[in-house]
TrEMBL record:
InterPro entries: FAM194_C. It holds the Pfam family FAM194. The lineage of its organism: Eukaryota, Metazoa, Chordata, Craniata, Vertebrata. This is ERIP6 protein. PANTHER family: GLUTAMATE RICH 6 (PTHR23093:SF18), SIMILAR TO CHROMOSOME 3 OPEN READING FRAME 20 (PTHR23093). Residues 1-174 form the FAM194 C-terminal domain.
Amino acid sequence: YPSGNLAIIITRERDQYSLIVQEDELKTTKIRAVFQSDGRSTCYYLNGDEWINMSTQGGQYLDQAGNRVRRWMWLNLSPEPHVPLSPIFISLNRYVGVRILAQDKILVSFLAMGRQAKFNMATKVEVSAASQLPPPAQLGEDELLLLAFRVRILQLFDRMRGCINFPSTEQWNKMQPPKYLMTQALKILELCMAADISDELRNSIKAIVNA
C-alpha cells in the first residue's frame, strides 16, 4: 500500500498456491480475502464476517448481517437446474478490488499511485460422467415447507416496508419483490421438482412462495 503496509501475499506449496489480501493496517493485519488455486476462496468484510465464499462447485454472497443474498453454481458442473452466476464486483478497500466473472475468470486487482497489478485466481474443474462429486442431498417435506414459509415471511416483510415507504396503494401494488427473493422462490420450486414428495405438497409449496 502507499502507506508501506503489505497488501498482497502469494505463497506456494508444491503445485498449489494461495493469494492473501491484507487490510491497510500495521498492527492488526486483518485478512480481507484468501484465494486458493484449488478453487476455494473467501472474501471478508472489514469486521471479519464472511462476504463471499467459493468452492469448486459454486459460491455464495452474504450481506453484513450474515444473510445469503446470492448463490450460484458454476455452469460446467451440473446438468440440473441451477442459479447461474451474474458478474460480481466488490471493493475490499480503496486499493483492492475483486471481479468474479466465471469459474475461470476471478480477478484480483490492486491500483495505487497510478500503477496497477492484476491476478487471475480462477480455476477450471471439468466434471466427467465418472465424477466422484456427491449428488446433492434431497430435502424432506418439513425442510421444504420451512424454506417456503421463510421466503413467504421475507416477502411479507418487504411488502410491509413498501407500504410504509409508499403509502399510496397504487404504488406498492405494482412493486415487485427483490430479485434475491424471486431467486430463492425459484430455487425452492426446483428442489420440489427433484424431491420425492406428493403433488399436493408440491402445489402447496408453489402456492406459498407465489402468493
